[in-house]
Design a protein that fits this description.
The protein is an all-alpha fold. It is 74% helix and 0% strand.
Length: 119
Amino acid sequence: MRSSILLMVMLLIISGCCSVTRPPGQTVASENNFENGVNQYENGHIKQAIHQFEKAIEKNPANFKAYYYLGLCYKHQGVTETAHRHFQKAIDLNPSDEAWVMKVRVEMETGGSEKGKKK
């Protein structure tokens, strides 16, 4: 009995330490939402773009590109604090790519974005 309980506790601990991977369908759906968001952003539909990027992140919280574009959207709207929070998350999720980190930091440090503005 005691060994059964110990075994169950160990299994619970081990299973809690394993990272949970998302089903492939979730990742594909996240990428689809991301691509839709980029299209919305590039056409100046910022609110719709935000919605798509948020859906992409909901389906794949590691989608650092979606956080970056959310930052661009909020930067475009003048919501600097929120933009910086999303930019920082984009960096935190992909810190080893120096070119990526530099790209995001440039956006954090510059003024409003010209992309995504309605024509």
